[in-house]
Structure formats: structure tokens, C-alpha cells
Amino acid sequence: KVIAPLIIVLLFFILYLGLQIKKPDRKIVHPPTQGLPALYVKDNTIRRADNHEKVQLKGVSTMAFAYEDYPIRAFLGIVGKVKLWKINLLGLFIQQDILKNKTKELDEVIDWAEKNYIYVYLMPRPSDMMDLSNQLMRFPSMMGQLAQRYSDKNHVFFGFWAEPNMDWGEWYKLADQIAKEIVAEKPNALMLMTGIDFGRSFDLNKTLSYKNIILDFHDYPASDIKSLQSVLAKDEMDFLWNNAKQKYPILVGEFGGVWQYGFGSQEDLIYIQKVLDEINSSGLNYSAYTMDNHNNDDNDVEEGLGLINWYTGLPTKKGELIRQDLLDYTPTDFSK
Length: 336
Known about the structure:
The chain is of the alpha/beta class and about 325 residues long. It has ten helices and eleven strands. Strand 6, helix 5 (about 130-150) and strand 7 (about 155-160) form a beta-alpha-beta unit. Residues about 20-35 and about 295-300 have low confidence and may be disordered.
């Protein structure tokens, strides 16, 4: 009779003590971040917003939403193979007349990229079959609409024009119009500004004042193998971004030794390796052009622009340089 009341008193005492123990402050317990972390620019680096660590982006690009027209399953099958090279960046060149009929496919690629820890940039490119001035007039609204569509996607960022060819004043004005449309919909958007002369030149005394601008260079120093041999004979490579890399984050958005003849030649491969070495030593970023299906080029598939043979799923000679670089100097792993 005495034991039962004592047990009850003891239980109430234990309960009382439990209530007095300070519980963890639930306000400091955060749920896992949804999607990939937002990125931002600080000085000449790209950083992640969740822990402010510097990141490096490396990947490939494609014309799948420009002049190419692949079935989405086939495209995702190939990009899935390239993903195994450890890319964390996918560049999508886009044309407005093609994109309007492929927005569902674009959504699918962007969702796939997020699930596979890959960032995506959308880079407008004019059609060669349409009036250039009319297309450029539509670039600001097109990019604003895309920024609105993907405003909640941290892993999507935006370019202004793949390879502008106009004087700097004209380009500055157009790029500013495009940037305004983007940040109106996505204020902290990461943005790529490509140089004039098809991605080669910047006026570093007059750059856009937006806070998250990355400079995008396209580096093809020679038209053919003979001209490239003269470039390779120099004691040091005078890379396009040498005067910019100390102040701005750099994406080498396209690169190769030649821009007209000699793709995949030994000289071309040597120059590509020199660019990769420079990127790794300077901590720059890149997207290699192109993962597209070039199997039917006049050039042999092993000596063309393509990085991967769509029939075999194996890298080309050029692709093998990129694959090996990604394995040896792996960019930021966002899955961790």
C-alpha cells in the first residue's frame, strides 16, 4: 500500500525534472536546402550562398535548343554519359524560334540537371536564317521570361548573347537591357557577359555594374593548323583573359586551337591542353564545346568539334582531354 503511492510520486518527480531540462531551440534547426545552393560573385570568384565557399564550374555545352533537334530521350542518354565524366555545368545555347516549341523539353533537361547536381546556363544565340537586328531586339524580353520561368531554380543562370559582333558601346547598351530584364525577375541571378569579336574582347574600363557578372571568353586563336603552329611556337601563351582574371570571375565558354580548319588535329589538341592547364592553375571555369552529335561531319568523328561519339558513347580525342581533365581536376561536387 505504501509502495504504490511512492512510485506515483517518483514518476511525477521524474516528469517534472524532464520539463525543466532546456530543449533545443527549434528556430536554429533548419531543414535541408531544397535544390542546389544559389551562387554569387565575390571579387574574382564564384561562391555558394549556403556556406560561402569558392566553387569551380566545369562542363560541356550543346546546341540542343538552337539549331540541333534531338529527341529528348536520346539527348538525355548522351548527357547522362557525359555526366559520368564528373561535369557540374551544362551550357544550353537557345534560339527563340526553336525554344517556343521546346519549353517542355527544356524544363525536363533543367529538372534532370538539378537532380544530378549540375548547374545550367541559358545562352541566347541568333538564328543564321533570320534577320539579326529583329532577333537582338527580342533578346531582353526572352531572357526576362526565362528568368521568370526559372526564378525558383538556384542552378539556372543566364547569358546575354553567345558571340556578339559589334562595337563595345552598342554591346554594352544591349547587354544592360538584357540584364535589367533578368534581374527584374530574379534579382540575385548569376549572369554571363560574353566579349565582342565573337567572345574575344572586353573593355574592362566599362563593364556592367550588376553584382553577379561572370566574364565569358571564347578562345580560338587561329583559323587553321599553320596559323596555330605560330601561336604554339611562342614561349608563353597570351590568353585572352590574362588582364581580367585578377578582378573578375572567368568562364572560358568555348576553346580550341582553330576556328575554321583543323579541328581535332594534333596542334588543336595541344592548344586545348594548354588552356586546360591554365584554367586549373588559375582556378577558372569552363564549358567545352560541344557534346552535340557531329558524327556526320565532313571531318572524321575523331577529328571534329564533338566531344563524344553518339554511336559508341565514347569520347573523341578532344573529348578524352576533357574527360581526363574532369577526372584529374574534378570541379566542385555539389552532391556533398
